[in-house]
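Render this sequence as a predicted structure.
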Amino acid sequence: MPRPSKTILLPKQEMLLRTLGEQVKLARLRRNLSVEQLAQRAGIARTTLIRLEHGDGGAAISTLAKTLFALGLEQDILLIAKDDLMGYRMQDAGLLLKKRARSKNAK
């Protein structure tokens, strides 16, 4: 079976994934867990955890969720896009531009 092609990412996306991977690795090291131990607790392959820690863009979000759960950091996944400031601004701008409904009494 042919191996899937590598995920193509923008440089900023690659940097963010590498940072995420480093944070996962640091959380593992702070808990004195080996790659093997964390992978086993998360129910993933050792190589999958290594790819996640290296910021591989092909790692599934379920892999991240399982890993965070095994580290006791499962609530952190809920912080993704929680404070969507740009979305709020766009929504508010649209709300300010809406015309008021005509009064029922207006002729």
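Summary. Helices lie at 11-30, 35-42, 46-53, 61-71, 85-97. The chain has a mean pLDDT of 88.
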